[in-house]
């Protein structure tokens, strides 16, 4: 029934409808995506096998960020992206134009919902979309009346170039070329990031700019690349009121902008979409693709023959080149040695040997971190403008910054009035500089100039976990698969701190706001200002200075100042319950007469009602065993 109810077209009287909760098939009239009014996030999930209807690992869901689009995942790994709706079709499915006489497609993106659906125009056709576990593909099948069987009419991904990010950042995949991967804009603008792997036909690491953009002088330009599947659009913005001329100007005004395109190709093209990060998951089509305007340095806009063709050189020229290279290497080596020495001297000014009043332990390490000039950071944050400000904590304000090479970073600036912040600064420099793990935020460097103390981190475009859990309307963006991925990532990061790193570290302030999320929603533990290094034979420690956040502290730490790895485990448990329930620990649950989430969860567990703890915005598409494992 194409109206999703009983065929009457009236759905408001139903408390629950099967059309709102698809399994492995998407039928005509079904919607996949986010309904912000009901908090429902409808996804399609494969069967484990043709004979086992229990949920598999392959699922299709909507990413409403930037210019929304649908993805197929296998577990947490992206397999295929539909591309954004361009007013006519999904940009990653140009062949849908060939059968639009039989099918009608709809994409709705407004304050109430972000959904995709289809109906069958030809009533003699019976069709469905099916997600398969075995090969992680979506198939459009049609019913053949004569033979009484389903026939595959269309499927995706269908070739190597359909696979997500096959050619990496700034790479473009062409199924009709050999090798498949090439740079989106050829040399001199871009070159393979790893030429060795490129020669072996592994282009997964993509391409990199040869010439840095020069945003300040306004000399950058654009190269038009046609017939493309437009890049992944989670870090993009759409302005429907601009034409391409205005879109170009908008991109040039933002130093983070890397490309632009028409958002709607119907009626000759209108609207504007701009990208603010690396361009990923691009492929070419023979026809019916879209034009992408890629930002490049002025020197790379008009390529000269000398740049594209190697010429034979005379022996004298070779000798001159070799001598010049040797001179440059000698000068460069001397410069790097002096720079490194200066870096060590400047970092030596940070008092890394802490006194007995501090809980961080005693260390006197020679830290070799990149140093950023204050003027560079000031320019990158637009003079620490309010528009660039991401938030503020006990340490001081945090800013988004864009460096001269286009890299986006986060900057924590120590507030002069924060005594605790100075200790946190020392602690973070000592600890994070020596830690490397996928689930820990990465310290890129620091700024130490006069009274200024700043830490420069990798930028996390999806902010922090509490933003998605506790901001009204945002919780629907976290389906169960994403939540479970976040929980698992935090656990891996914590295990690294406690057991696997060369320093055994207790974080002491693990909470939702200290879990940052990258563009893939991978969690990163941050804020090590209150962390403590443990010796190999130490199991617990007592302090008179209790730091952290009440609600996440273990009882023995909050009351007696005793902390150990168990303190972090307690905080992690609170955090897991918050992720599962979408509720803060320190709340009043009047319906169960409990004053916090822990006692409420314990009460439900004893009554055998643990599943009532699950956030309603997740819906019902989740493996019960995974949820119970988290609650236990």
From TrEMBL:
<keyword id="KW-1015">Disulfide bond</keyword>
<keyword id="KW-0808">Transferase</keyword>
<dbReference type="InterPro" id="IPR011009">
    <property type="entry name" value="Kinase-like_dom_sf"/>
</dbReference>
<dbReference type="InterPro" id="IPR003609">
    <property type="entry name" value="Pan_app"/>
</dbReference>
<keyword id="KW-0067">ATP-binding</keyword>
<dbReference type="Pfam" id="PF00954">
    <property type="entry name" value="S_locus_glycop"/>
</dbReference>
<dbReference type="Pfam" id="PF08276">
    <property type="entry name" value="PAN_2"/>
</dbReference>
<dbReference type="GO" id="GO:0051707">
    <property type="term" value="P:response to other organism"/>
</dbReference>
<keyword id="KW-1133">Transmembrane helix</keyword>
<feature type="domain" description="Protein kinase">
    <location>
        <begin position="384"/>
        <end position="632"/>
    </location>
</feature>
<dbReference type="InterPro" id="IPR001480">
    <property type="entry name" value="Bulb-type_lectin_dom"/>
</dbReference>
<keyword id="KW-0723">Serine/threonine-protein kinase</keyword>
<protein>
    <recommendedName>
        <fullName>non-specific serine/threonine protein kinase</fullName>
        <ecNumber>2.7.11.1</ecNumber>
    </recommendedName>
</protein>
<feature type="region of interest" description="Disordered">
    <location>
        <begin position="41"/>
        <end position="62"/>
    </location>
</feature>
<keyword id="KW-0732">Signal</keyword>
<keyword id="KW-0325">Glycoprotein</keyword>
<feature type="transmembrane region" description="Helical">
    <location>
        <begin position="314"/>
        <end position="337"/>
    </location>
</feature>
<dbReference type="GO" id="GO:0004674">
    <property type="term" value="F:protein serine/threonine kinase activity"/>
</dbReference>
<dbReference type="Pfam" id="PF07714">
    <property type="entry name" value="PK_Tyr_Ser-Thr"/>
</dbReference>
<dbReference type="InterPro" id="IPR001245">
    <property type="entry name" value="Ser-Thr/Tyr_kinase_cat_dom"/>
</dbReference>
<keyword id="KW-0418">Kinase</keyword>
<dbReference type="GO" id="GO:0048544">
    <property type="term" value="P:recognition of pollen"/>
</dbReference>
<dbReference type="InterPro" id="IPR036426">
    <property type="entry name" value="Bulb-type_lectin_dom_sf"/>
</dbReference>
<keyword id="KW-1003">Cell membrane</keyword>
<keyword id="KW-0547">Nucleotide-binding</keyword>
<dbReference type="GO" id="GO:0005524">
    <property type="term" value="F:ATP binding"/>
</dbReference>
<dbReference type="InterPro" id="IPR000719">
    <property type="entry name" value="Prot_kinase_dom"/>
</dbReference>
<dbReference type="Pfam" id="PF01453">
    <property type="entry name" value="B_lectin"/>
</dbReference>
<keyword id="KW-0472">Membrane</keyword>
<dbReference type="GO" id="GO:0005886">
    <property type="term" value="C:plasma membrane"/>
</dbReference>
<keyword id="KW-0675">Receptor</keyword>
<keyword id="KW-0812">Transmembrane</keyword>
<feature type="domain" description="Apple">
    <location>
        <begin position="215"/>
        <end position="297"/>
    </location>
</feature>
<dbReference type="InterPro" id="IPR008271">
    <property type="entry name" value="Ser/Thr_kinase_AS"/>
</dbReference>
<dbReference type="InterPro" id="IPR000858">
    <property type="entry name" value="S_locus_glycoprot_dom"/>
</dbReference>
């Amino acid at each position: 029934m194409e109206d999703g109810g009983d065929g009457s077209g009236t759905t408001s009287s139903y408390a629950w409808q099967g059309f709102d909760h698809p399994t492995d098939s998407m039928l005509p009239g079904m919607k996949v995506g986010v309904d912000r009014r009901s908090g429902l996030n409808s996804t399609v999930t494969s069967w484990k096998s043709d004979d086992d209807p229990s949920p598999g690992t392959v699922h299709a869901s909507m990413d409403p960020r930037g210019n929304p689009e649908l993805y197929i995942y296998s577990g947490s790994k992206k397999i295929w992206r539909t591309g954004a709706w361009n007013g006519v079709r999904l940009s990653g499915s140009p062949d849908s134009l060939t059968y639009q006489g039989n099918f009608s497609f709809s994409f709705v993106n407004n304050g109430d919902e972000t959904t995709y659906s289809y109906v069958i125009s030809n009533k003699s056709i019976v069709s469905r979309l099916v997600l398969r576990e075995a090969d992680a593909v979506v198939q459009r099948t049609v019913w053949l009346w004569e033979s009484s069987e389903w026939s595959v009419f269309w499927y995706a991904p269908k070739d190597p170039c359909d696979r997500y990010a096959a050619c990496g950042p700034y790479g473009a995949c062409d199924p009709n070329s050999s090798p498949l991967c090439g740079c989106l804009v050829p040399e001199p603008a871009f070159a393979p990031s790893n030429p060795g792997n490129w020669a072996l036909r592994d282009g997964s690491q993509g391409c990199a700019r040869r010439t840095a953009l020069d945003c300040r002088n306004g000399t950058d330009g654009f190269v038009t690349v046609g017939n493309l599947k437009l890049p992944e659009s989670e870090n993009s913005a759409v302005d429907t009121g601009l034409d391409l001329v205005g879109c170009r100007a908008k991109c040039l005004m933002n130093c983070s902008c890397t490309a632009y395109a028409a958002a709607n190709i119907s009626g000759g093209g209108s609207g504007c979409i701009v990208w603010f990060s690396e361009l990923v998951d691009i492929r070419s089509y023979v026809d019916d693709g879209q034009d992408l305007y890629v930002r490049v340095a002025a020197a790379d806009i008009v390529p000269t023959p000398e740049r594209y063709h190697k010429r034979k050189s005379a022996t004298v020229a070779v000798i001159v080149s070799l001598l010049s290279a040797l001179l440059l290497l000698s000068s460069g080596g001397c410069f790097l040695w002096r720079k490194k020495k200066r870096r060590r001297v400047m970092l030596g000014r940070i008092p890394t040997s802490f006194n007995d009043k501090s809980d961080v332990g005693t260390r006197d390490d020679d830290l070799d971190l990149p140093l950023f000039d204050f003027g560079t950071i000031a320019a990158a944050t637009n003079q620490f403008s309010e528009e660039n400000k991401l938030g503020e904590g006990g340490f001081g304000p945090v800013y988004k910054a864009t460096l001269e090479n286009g890299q986006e970073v986060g900057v924590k600036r120590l507030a002069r009035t924060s005594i605790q912040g100075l200790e946190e600064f020392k602690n973070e420099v000592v600890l994070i500089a020596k830690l490397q793990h996928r689930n820990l935020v990465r310290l890129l460097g620091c700024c130490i100039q006069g009274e200024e103390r700043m830490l420069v981190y990798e930028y996390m475009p999806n902010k922090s976990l509490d933003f998605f859990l506790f901001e009204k309307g945002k919780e629907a963006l976290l389906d169960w698969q994403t939540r479970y991925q976040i929980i698992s990532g935090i656990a891996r990061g914590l295990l690294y701190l406690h057991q696997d790193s060369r320093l055994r570290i207790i974080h002491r302030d693990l909470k939702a706001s200290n879990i940052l999320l990258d563009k893939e929603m991978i969690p990163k533990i941050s804020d090590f200002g209150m962390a403590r290094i443990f010796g190999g034979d130490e199991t617990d420690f007592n302090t008179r200075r209790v730091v952290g956040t009440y609600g996440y502290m273990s009882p023995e730490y909050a009351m007696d100042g005793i902390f150990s790895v168990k303190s972090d485990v307690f905080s992690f448990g609170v955090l897991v319950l918050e992720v599962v329930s979408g509720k803060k620990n320190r709340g009043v649950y009047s319906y169960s007469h409990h004053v916090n989430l822990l006692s409420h969860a314990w009460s439900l567990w004893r009554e055998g009602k643990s599943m009532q703890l699950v956030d309603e915005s997740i819906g019902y598409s989740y493996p019960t065993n995974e949820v119970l494992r988290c609650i236990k």
